[in-house]
Amino acid sequence: MDFAFDAETDELRSRLEAFMDEHVYPAEPVFEQQLAERDDPWSSVPIVEDLKTEARSRGLWNLFLPGEHGAGLTNLQYAPLAEITGRSPQLAPTVLNCAAPDTGNMEVLAMFGSPKHHEQWLRPLLDGEIRSAFAMTEPDVASSDARNIETKIVRDGDSYVISGRKWYISGAMNPNCRIFIVMGKTDPDAEPHRQQSMILVPRDTPGVQVKRGMNVFGYTDGDHGGHAEVVFDDVRVPAENLLQEEGSGFAIAQARLGPGRIHHCMRLIGMAERGIELMCRRTISRTAFGKPIAQQGVVQDWIAESRVRVEQLRLLVLKTAWLMDTVGNQGAHTEIQSIKIATPASVEWILDKAIQAHGAGGVSQDFPLAGLWAAARMLRLADGPDEVHKRSLARRELKKYLPERK
Amino acid sequence: MDFAFDAETDELRSRLEAFMDEHVYPAEPVFEQQLAERDDPWSSVPIVEDLKTEARSRGLWNLFLPGEHGAGLTNLQYAPLAEITGRSPQLAPTVLNCAAPDTGNMEVLAMFGSPKHHEQWLRPLLDGEIRSAFAMTEPDVASSDARNIETKIVRDGDSYVISGRKWYISGAMNPNCRIFIVMGKTDPDAEPHRQQSMILVPRDTPGVQVKRGMNVFGYTDGDHGGHAEVVFDDVRVPAENLLQEEGSGFAIAQARLGPGRIHHCMRLIGMAERGIELMCRRTISRTAFGKPIAQQGVVQDWIAESRVRVEQLRLLVLKTAWLMDTVGNQGAHTEIQSIKIATPASVEWILDKAIQAHGAGGVSQDFPLAGLWAAARMLRLADGPDEVHKRSLARRELKKYLPERK
Amino acid sequence: MDFAFDAETDELRSRLEAFMDEHVYPAEPVFEQQLAERDDPWSSVPIVEDLKTEARSRGLWNLFLPGEHGAGLTNLQYAPLAEITGRSPQLAPTVLNCAAPDTGNMEVLAMFGSPKHHEQWLRPLLDGEIRSAFAMTEPDVASSDARNIETKIVRDGDSYVISGRKWYISGAMNPNCRIFIVMGKTDPDAEPHRQQSMILVPRDTPGVQVKRGMNVFGYTDGDHGGHAEVVFDDVRVPAENLLQEEGSGFAIAQARLGPGRIHHCMRLIGMAERGIELMCRRTISRTAFGKPIAQQGVVQDWIAESRVRVEQLRLLVLKTAWLMDTVGNQGAHTEIQSIKIATPASVEWILDKAIQAHGAGGVSQDFPLAGLWAAARMLRLADGPDEVHKRSLARRELKKYLPERK
Amino acid sequence: MDFAFDAETDELRSRLEAFMDEHVYPAEPVFEQQLAERDDPWSSVPIVEDLKTEARSRGLWNLFLPGEHGAGLTNLQYAPLAEITGRSPQLAPTVLNCAAPDTGNMEVLAMFGSPKHHEQWLRPLLDGEIRSAFAMTEPDVASSDARNIETKIVRDGDSYVISGRKWYISGAMNPNCRIFIVMGKTDPDAEPHRQQSMILVPRDTPGVQVKRGMNVFGYTDGDHGGHAEVVFDDVRVPAENLLQEEGSGFAIAQARLGPGRIHHCMRLIGMAERGIELMCRRTISRTAFGKPIAQQGVVQDWIAESRVRVEQLRLLVLKTAWLMDTVGNQGAHTEIQSIKIATPASVEWILDKAIQAHGAGGVSQDFPLAGLWAAARMLRLADGPDEVHKRSLARRELKKYLPERK
């Protein structure tokens, strides 16, 4: 259980922090400005491309991706880097080509894609030329139970035909999002975890209808391509677009979600740190009832509690990363669920306090806090709601004490 | 301490509920549709005017306003009506001409305005022809301490000249918002609570610059005229625009805030009831892990806790209304602070659970929950943050036990 | 919904407060002293008998009991009186002959007992000459589900024979506790709510074994006769000892629990008020870091939050009392559950803060706070744990939205 | 940041777990039995001496003490061992000679005592022959602010004369507690942190009056020598009894408190683990409403949340231990405060849930839960209340953002 950062990580942290200080933080207001001025509310903006070029030239690129296709870092190496990007979560992950959902999609393609998939989709994604989406959640069923998924993927000769409705498909409103990984059922009569398959659907396939952007507490997240509702209306793609074989969809989803969850948690810690910094700076600078707000006991209570929570979360995330590196994602299952349960809820709490300390400014567009809060809140729902993870984790805990079944 | 609804209240409740069922709830999707289609993101939409006409014809108009100018109800009579409007808070309060900030502004004009003010501004507000704004909060200071206000109101001959910057001026983005009640300092050297004055500033006065709409968690609240940042750049108005005399601003603000706070709390209870209803309906209709979500123990815990909280809040609001009616706003000071502390926080909690029970739908524009949540959250800040009210209430509690000073 | 105190209540409140000030509060240290000095750790002490005589002479006696046998007050009349006794819960309820479990037992006997039961047991209880116990909870099953009860009551000729094990039988360690009302099953094959019966078992019946006192967080509650573990080993009593007919036990229990729960909640509110008073007095009188602790923001937050919570609880308790008076206990079912859920939890929170404000003194025997806390905590378990009440209340809430079954 | 257990630690863990399984857990009921039967409610019982002999023979002795006098373990090595002892906190720490307050006292004597002190007091303490007490907290002032201490230590020739009143002096009721380390003021006019000194006072010195045992939520903790109120009435001891020089008392207290706090936190984690285990076992074995309680969603929520919290706490404690080992107690100041803030509060929460899951059994003497809870609750007060630590930690956090003072 050694969480010390090795020399490579330390070097990358320094390099990344320099990049943040020199380029990312100064670009935040420019980014906001360009977003406000663009014509298409779902498109990216020039500053992002500029920063991508700069990041790549500095060797800060695809850090999330282990193995030959990416930077080859371990989870433990990547964790402190992802945390740093979380301090500016609208910009930094994207410009390092480390933003969800592309990260998870690249992992899926790298692990489960064919050479042709690599060539056609993984390569331009790795190069940051296109974006991608992951289409799993459906509006018409409780998607927290993956067995409820109703989208159909039906074999028809050399093709598969896909029909169904998805929503909250992050990134899919961006016109540069070119490829969807779609989860659906190929065999509703198979055993529960072998009914699903995943298939690649290019955005421009006939029958793909990107209907509208879904909101998150008033935010469209248009800077990230939003969260689309997408209808697949008898969409026909070549059979070779299927990832692996029929029935492997659930397993691929599991493989994708482990790293996805920890990446979110790493970034959430950076978001919390940003929140604490802003809370301190603001309360030092504002005076009420005769003294700086920072001297109010209640505010100090918030700050202390926030620090104590973040320290605990970070260590649990690091342990989880270390476990994933050493015993594999399956062996780290309890820990991945633990950070998924603990991190969004605690970070939401911290950001709520930072908001309150800012008064009306806290809920405004002049500070990143309300947006960070909405992202944290969303993660109590996304990738499985807290309640489903708790239920599963509790059952595993209880199993320790159940009499053996023969 | 008699909270029973009298015959008049019961009759009004029935009439209002019929109006809600027949007109308001069915109009909600139309309203959303018209909002999406309008050109000016800050303007009102036709359905609102239609409903206003209908409401007025049914005698559901200006219910909030006691005395000759309004419906003449007591606070206790108005409370259950305001609660009902809170079930559809984007539409109902407005179409009954009972929406903040106009309500508070009409009260101020009715109580403290001159006959000329009545003629010029109160009359069209009572008729729902124009909107108004209340300009108090400033971006550059901690406005939770009213003594921090920096806007200057300087006498110059027969005029006053106003200079300062305000933000979160609700309603002010709406082009039909014609009159601002502005709080500023006429005498920074007077004793702390006699420094401020209030003055009427027509929107079209030279020097009034409505700069931009401020957001609340991603929401512009454009349907209510948003929350404007407004700069007053040497704005000159006739001296007769001053409300009462110089130095009376703090007292007027206090008089305005008591009813304002309880109206918000009444509506919040309706919002909570809407949330509980939606939470029940949704969890009954969705199935996960083999049974309706409503049968999950954790969900039942949320529902029970929500019901128990709402019942407590409602009673405290009713008691506060009754006290205001019987001993006056000053005598109900502790209770007004108590509901201001308890209601937004508890209702926020309830709405959070209703959101979680909806999955991604909960944070979306397809359900009113995320918007209701943002409104509740905002009220932990607006009209004095929780912490300021708690501090003040605690001091009064402690005073009971302090040795008498001679 | 009129909660105003009528003239009789106001007069009784004044009389009771005078009695508290003149006799009860001054007796608290004497009581502690006598408890420490007695030989039998389960017996009562002389000061209690003195105060009983005084209370009765002042007409402060059996206030809890409606109808001819008691003071004849309504629940709404009794509520503020019970609250006052809650300020000194170890002494005041007992000396007014208003202490659990005798109160519930007297109610049961008054409502369901035969004339002979009245003569033999109700009369001396009403006169405060003997004590009684209610034997329901069992150590070997989850008693939160009444259907689990395993004690057997078997008819044998003119007798019933009782066998089973009970615990947490409050008051039963006191040698002056002469009569047990025992809940058991007469017919395990009947439908679930007709299996149980209640029967009177005099303490001196052969086979009754009072084994030991059970603790509550280290407290024996020996001043109230403790909480006994009692074994009934083939205990034979005359058939006439059965209350009502066989199978009526569950209904009697329900009838007993409604008033019992609200009495606890009334007193809990007085306990909370005592806690707030002590918290204020202590923090005013102690200085740390250069100012009285009462001026610390965090402490003020506790005080304000406590006040706000108590006001809400009291109103909900009053409404429940009023409902029980006007529509009956059955009609007040949801409200009784609501106060049972809300009151112990909130009062526990308040007392925890009062303890913390006292430092080590808070957990000590020199202040009543830790004892009050344990009593409040126990009530999250006793008379049905929170979770069972929440589950039941939620189901009723959900029922409003379920499709009608035909 | 390497928290892996080294070979020595692993070996000791195995040895300790074997000892727990073979001797400690089986001794728990015997211990309770002997406690119930002893004459002196403050004395130790034979089983403890037996287990001490066994533990020592197994090399499980003085594990807490670094350096030559003890087992020489680092904090990181000791942490997992202390956690294991926390699973049986009434027995295990004592029988390993690792129980507070002796541990802290031995550390003080080892670090700051003279050779004569070592010979006279440290040696028998290390051998487990006598017990000791640490007399700091006073009943008459807010001891959370160490500057408030009023006990006087006055030089008079070759002696010091001590006068003052202390309470919650843990262990001091035990007749085998032979030596007190007393904190008092030698110079009330010195700068705040140089006013205090520490001095050794043998229990049998004339003027030492051990008055009574103080309770913790009804518990006397008589098995650990209780928590005494002690009056020092012109107690005269030789000047050589002073530790170090006059004015060094505050610094010695700080040196003592760091390890003391982390030891408590380590054990608290073991207490939490015991609570989780009991919660699981109980809810698996009890049935209500047709299924094992362990299948209730609310109970599973508690179990999951408990697991997630414990994992976070343990890591933060390990990091703190590692920091103390590598950069010293001063460098680990923030972390020591963090675990002192987080651990008792979280563990209290977990134990509360375990209690609730046990029904009445949870608050009884038949399960260790209520006692564990009281110990955890006490630690939110002892060694500095949460609020003082939070205030201090927040100030350090805020300092990062304060402008440099010149």
Describe this structure in words.
The structure is a homotetramer of 406-residue chains. Chain A has 406 residues and is an alpha+beta fold. Chain A has three domains: 7-126, Acyl-CoA dehydrogenase/oxidase, N-terminal domain (Butyryl-Coa Dehydrogenase, subunit A, domain 1), CATH 1.10.540.10; 131-246, Butyryl-CoA Dehydrogenase, subunit A, domain 2 (Beta Barrel); 250-399, Butyryl-CoA Dehydrogenase, subunit A, domain 3. Chain A has twelve helices and nine strands. In chain A, the strands form three sheets. In chain A, strands 2-3-7-6 form a four-stranded antiparallel β-sheet, with no helix packed on it. A three-stranded mixed β-sheet of chain A has the order 1-4-5, covered by helices on one side. A two-stranded antiparallel ribbon of chain A has the order 8-9. In chain A, strand 8 (287-288) and strand 9 form a beta hairpin. Chain A is globular and about 75 Å long. Chain A starts with 6 loop residues before the first helix and ends in a 7-residue tail after the last helix. The relative contact order of chain A is 0.10. The model of chain A has no long low-confidence stretch (mean pLDDT 96). Chains in contact: A-B, A-C, A-D, B-C, B-D, C-D. The interface between C and D is large, with 50 and 50 residues.
